[in-house]
């Protein structure tokens, strides 16, 4: 079992000054995470989603993290692979540079870019999104296998001009032929697709333990059934990292209060971008019973979805983001939750701590609680088993 953290760089009551501090705070969290025993960090890529995500250039953020750390894995999780966001050769060049700067610590994930707001910004062709994600993964796995690179398909052609020498893509990564490949998975079809591609799955864990178990079973069944014809690389990576929202304090009730408020902000801030004309997230919920509010909202969304076709298509993910039965509480509560993830067969627990209303002090305290109590518990179990 591995332990990592993921960063959306969420910000309530955003101002440029608070945004600048937020990025430095996230880097500090990564440094502390390495100090206390975490195995990796991940940073997402989103664009123009104010409040929900201020991480639009994760490769630069992760370069700063790599420069401040020595051991922890650096997870680019994920690169938006549709070509409007990132040309596939540029993805390869940046990934290789980050792998070199980190001395071979890079994990590289792929995704399609989650919202209409982002796709219109970057002029992404919605009909080609999934095909371009698959094509991008294939290009990443092939680009360093030979001294020069050419590619021709229905989606993209990469060739030198007549009379010019072939393209030699530099630099080359430390991990050859490429860093481990992953894919973001927010629904069952994507989980199956990741297994068919032979890449690791970064799964949406807001649905809780039952949802994680179901997605793990889906992934394993799809991996077992595949004939390998859709593998994007000869380097198969059947690995699952599951999201785990968490706040850990000595006072378990206080941790649940802080966690529920933070997750409410998370759910409402992405909900703002899920459909047109949605309200801004409520940034002033201190003192409210956010646990009760979250459970009520999940029921309300399901009821609305019965008569709203546009919402019905997104209801499952929306309801999951309002589920607050996670690793909120004291260290023993977190250990019990992770033990269930371990039984489900998850390879990596991906802690989501930094949510919009959770302070830097609360984030660092939670990171240290995991490092002092939760992670050592599982390290000791592993030693006994060995």
TrEMBL record:
GO CC entries: cytosol
GO function terms (MF aspect): monooxygenase activity; oxidoreductase activity, acting on paired donors, with incorporation or reduction of molecular oxygen
Annotated keywords: Monooxygenase, Oxidoreductase
Domain Luciferase-like: 1-347
Family annotation (InterPro entries): Bact_Lucif_Oxidored (IPR050766), Luciferase-like_dom (IPR011251), Luciferase-like_sf (IPR036661)
Matching PANTHER family: BLR5498 PROTEIN (PTHR30137:SF8), LUCIFERASE-LIKE MONOOXYGENASE (PTHR30137)
Name of this protein: LLM class flavin-dependent oxidoreductase
Species: Sphingomonas crocodyli
């Amino acid at each position: 079992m591995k332990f990592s953290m993921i960063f959306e760089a969420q910000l309530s009551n955003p101002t440029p000054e608070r945004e600048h501090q937020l990025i430095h705070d996230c880097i500090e969290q990564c440094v502390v995470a390495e100090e206390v025993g975490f195995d990796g960090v991940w940073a997402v890529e989103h664009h123009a989603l104010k409040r929900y995500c201020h991480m639009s250039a994760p490769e630069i953020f992760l370069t700063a993290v790599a420069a401040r750390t020595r051991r922890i894995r650096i997870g680019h999780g994920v690169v938006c692979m549709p070509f409007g966001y990132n040309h596939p050769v540029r993805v390869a060049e940046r990934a290789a540079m980050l792998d070199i700067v980190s001395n071979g610590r890079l994990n590289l994930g792929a995704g399609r870019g989650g919202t209409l707001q982002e796709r219109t910004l970057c002029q992404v062709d919605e009909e080609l999104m999934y095909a371009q994600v698959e094509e991008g993964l294939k290009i990443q796995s092939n680009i360093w296998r030979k001294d020069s690179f050419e590619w021709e398909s229905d989606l993209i052609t990469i060739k030198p001009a007549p009379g010019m020498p072939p393209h030699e893509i530099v630099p080359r990564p430390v991990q050859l032929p490429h860093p481990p490949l992953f894919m973001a998975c927010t629904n069952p079809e994507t989980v199956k697709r990741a297994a068919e591609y032979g890449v690791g799955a970064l799964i949406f864990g807001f649905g809780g333990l039952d949802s994680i178990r179901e997605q793990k079973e889906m992934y394993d069944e799809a991996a077992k059934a595949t004939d390998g014809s859709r593998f994007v690389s000869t380097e198969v990576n059947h690995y699952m990292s599951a999201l785990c929202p968490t706040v850990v304090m000595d006072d378990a009730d206080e941790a649940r209060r802080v966690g529920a408020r933070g997750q409410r902000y998370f759910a409402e801030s992405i909900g703002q971008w899920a459909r047109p004309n949605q309200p801004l997230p409520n940034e002033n919920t201190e003192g409210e019973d956010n646990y009760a509010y979250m459970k009520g909202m999940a029921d309300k969304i399901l009821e609305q979805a019965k008569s709203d076709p546009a919402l019905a298509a997104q209801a499952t993910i929306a309801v999951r983001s309002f589920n607050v039965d996670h690793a909120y509480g004291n260290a023993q509560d977190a250990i019990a939750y992770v033990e269930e993830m371990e039984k489900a067969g998850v390879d990596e627990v991906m802690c989501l701590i930094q949510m919009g209303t959770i302070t830097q002090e609360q984030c660092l305290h939670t990171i240290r609680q995991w490092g002092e109590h939760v992670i050592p518990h599982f390290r000791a179990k592993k030693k006994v088993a060995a």
